[in-house]
Write a structure and sequence with these properties.
heterodimer, A: mainly alpha, MetI-like fold, two-stranded antiparallel ribbon, 17 helices, B: mainly alpha, 2 domains, 2 strands, 1% strand, globular
């Protein structure tokens, strides 16, 4: 649609009009400003970690220096151990001081380690399990949602009669209207049981297969059994992934259906005229033509699954395990922020790290969105120009 | 060549493939529709018996296993009301800019569009962090130091509403822009021909003709805002409250958060299950009635301008 701005011609300078226009421009820039503000303020709150100014990182040095001073004043008379002839205590104190100093330097090493245990005497902030967990859940949700929604979109765009389309599209929009907390609750009460009984049902089969394989290839005995052992956990990446899939289906379906319907009808007519069947036309002509839109739909789906909080919080078990098994419970980045930010002391290092996770989420969603814009706007519009 | 083609057509591989490529999409569509129908029926079946007048008007009792959810409904309605007051004017102005003032190719209008799209894609939990970092810790603290108070620099209803209004901004913008574009060009031309200025045309002709569109945007934003839990978890929603919130600086109970708490942090989840289903159904009815109203208004706008 063309802009309405061409309709109005500039004739005379009117101060009131100019002021109004600037007010509206200013308000319109709000969306851009908000993006910047989100970026600035999440960085600011994560600043304690990024610039190393968090209380846990800095004042510790001061405290330890005091300890050192004190130790040198008071402990001095005791440091000399006459039996062994060694200066024991001051060495220990110095070691302690050194350990505390290196702790502040090694926060980044801590951050990329493999254990997430933010509460405790020695908090561990390794985000590796969170990254793996997010990856696993997103993967499962895509495996569930993508084929289903793209096939349904193909059916809707090319095969369905008008009245069937009028049933399917609003139904999927109903799914889009489900608040994510409701989907999470659904997973909690039904999907968990379904997945659990399915895995219990499949376990003997998997064990048998593992037995056979290990009989044929004896050296693979140990890892084939562990790989084919479905865990006994109720909550897992699979349950969460199905829940996230439910949230992602409407996005992938709607956008890819739009992209498929936007392919010019001349493509279809040409293909049919050449003797291709309806299904060949759909899969070999229309789908490739609409591919940028479909890819954009999948990308947006990834973005949604990646950042979804409530479903991940309720259905994945929320245990930060370092494991690649999709039947183990997981803890995603978003769920970590959601469950811990409410309880953490504001301004502490843990709080800074949660905001750091927020930066990761924001950046990923930003990149995905930019990629999508590129795919849809540049590629698709060029492709169908003049068609 | 034609022989080859014919042969291929009659092979069983080709037969199976052609059946699959028409059958799979149909199967996927049926599966999807059945799945969604099942989801809806599940909640209606389990939730409907629990919805009584007392349930809607009483406060929760006995560790959330008895009583109703009135404080949560009240908090949610209060929240989305403030949210629309904050967000709808800004969203409408942005839509007016995009539809009436912007030149399509200008850098500024493209950046605004990019900003709106990006905003729509930011995970809701990040808005929650933004609410803490910007509204509570920055603006709230600023007001407190300026006015010598202590009530604003903590999570509260006003900051949750502000956070949600930012989150729902793209929804409002998209809906209002569509409505503005649906106003026939003739009306603008007629107004301008009669000597009205640009702003007079927008204010007196375009906006009154797209009021229903603004309403649609508001309703859609409310539907979205009422269901979002992640942004309000740490910007003001609480587990339970002794009394209803009566000022903007109070904390509040929230329908979605209430469901989350009942489902995951209840000491006796089994006892609370009927109430959980009933609360979920109330939230669903709220969301769907809003969405349906919006869809109906949209349909009417489209028909009336055809």
């Amino acid at each position: 649609m063309s802009s309405n701005s061409t309709l109005y011609k500039k004739s005379k300078f009117r101060p009131f009009e100019a002021i109004i226009e600037w007010i509206i421009r200013l308000t319109a820039s709000f969306s851009i400003i908000i993006i910047f503000l989100i970026f600035i303020f999440i960085f600011k709150e994560a600043g304690g970690l990024i610039f190393g100014t968090a209380k846990e990182l800095k004042p510790k040095k001061a405290v330890s220096e005091k300890v050192q001073d004190k130790s040198e004043e008071k402990v001095k008379p005791e440091i000399y151990n006459p039996e062994t002839g060694e200066i024991v205590k001051i060495v220990e104190v110095k070691k302690l001081v050194k350990a505390k100093e290196t702790e502040s330097q090694s926060i980044w090493a801590n951050l990329f380690s493999d254990t997430w245990q933010p509460v405790g005497k020695k908090p561990k902030y390794g985000i590796q399990p969170l990254l793996i967990g997010t990856f696993k859940v997103t993967l499962v949700s895509l495996l569930f949602a993508t084929p289903l929604s793209i096939l349904a979109a193909i059916y809707c765009a090319f095969f369905a009669k008008a009245w069937i389309r009028d049933i399917i599209k609003p139904t999927v929009e109903v799914l889009a209207g489900f608040p994510s907390v409701v989907l999470g609750f659904f997973c909690l009460v039904t999907v968990v049981q379904g997945v659990y009984s399915t895995t219990q049902f499949l376990q003997p089969l998997c064990t048998n297969i593992a037995d056979i394989i290990s009989w044929i290839l004896p050296f693979s005995d140990r890892w084939i059994h562990s790989a084919l052992t479905i865990s006994d956990f109720h909550y897992s990446a699979v349950v969460g992934g199905i829940g996230l899939g439910l949230a992602v289906i409407p996005i992938i379906f709607t956008i890819s259906e739009d992209a498929l319907s936007a392919v010019p009808n001349s493509y279809r007519e040409a293909s049919l005229a050449l003797g291709a069947t309806e299904s060949e036309t759909a899969f070999k002509v229309m789908l490739p033509a609409a591919l940028p839109g479909v890819v954009a739909a999948i990308l947006l789906g990834i973005g949604r699954a990646f950042g979804e909080t409530m479903i991940a919080l309720m259905a994945t078990g929320n245990a930060a395990l370092f494991s690649w098994n999709i039947f183990h419970p997981v803890r995603t980045l978003a769920a970590t922020i959601g469950s811990e930010t409410g309880e953490v002391q504001w301004g502490s290092l843990h709080y800074n790290i949660l905001f750091f996770l927020g930066i990761l989420l924001f950046l990923v969603s930003f990149i995905i969105n930019a990629l999508t814009e590129l795919f849809v706007k540049k590629y698709l519009s060029k492709k169908f120009q003049g068609a | 060549m034609s022989e080859l083609l014919l042969q291929k057509k009659h092979s069983s591989y080709y037969y199976v493939k052609s059946k699959l490529s028409t059958g799979l999409p149909l199967f996927a569509a049926i599966f999807l529709v059945l799945l969604i129908a099942l989801l809806l029926l599940h909640f209606i079946w389990h939730g409907a018996p629990g919805i009584t007048w007392a349930f809607l008007t009483e406060a929760p009792r006995n560790n959330n296993t008895e009583g109703g959810i009135f404080p949560a409904i009240y908090g949610t309605v209060f929240l989305v009301f403030i949210m629309s007051l904050l967000g709808v004017p800004i969203g409408t102005a942005t839509a007016i800019y995009l539809s009436e003032y912007a030149r399509q190719q200008s850098f500024f209008s493209r950046s605004v569009r990019f900003g709106v799209n990006t905003l729509a894609g930011v995970p809701s939990i990040v808005f929650g962090l933004f609410g803490v970092g910007f509204f509570v810790q920055f603006i709230g603290k600023g007001i407190d130091t300026a006015a010598q108070t202590t009530i604003w620099s903590k999570p509260s209803l006003i900051w949750a509403a502000a956070t949600l209004s930012v989150l729902t901004l793209p929804v409002v913008i998209v809906a209002v822009e569509e409505a503005l574009r649906n106003v026939p060009q003739d009306l603008r031309e007629a107004s301008l021909a009669l000597g009205a200025t640009k702003w007079q045309t927008i204010w007196r002709v375009v906006l009154p003709n797209s009021l229903t569109g603004i309403l649609t945007g508001t309703i859609l934003a409310i539907g979205r805002g009422a269901g979002e839990v992640a942004p309000v978890i740490f910007v003001g929603a609480v587990y339970s409250l002794p009394q209803l919130p009566d000022s903007l600086a109070d904390q509040f109970m929230h329908m979605g958060y209430h469901i989350y708490v009942l489902a995951t942090q209840s000491p006796n989840a089994a006892d609370a299950l009927p109430l959980q289903y009933a609360s979920t159904l109330v939230l669903l009815i709220l969301a769907f009635s809003l969405n349906l109203t919006a869809a109906y208004i949209r349909l009417r706008i489209r028909r009336s301008h055809k």
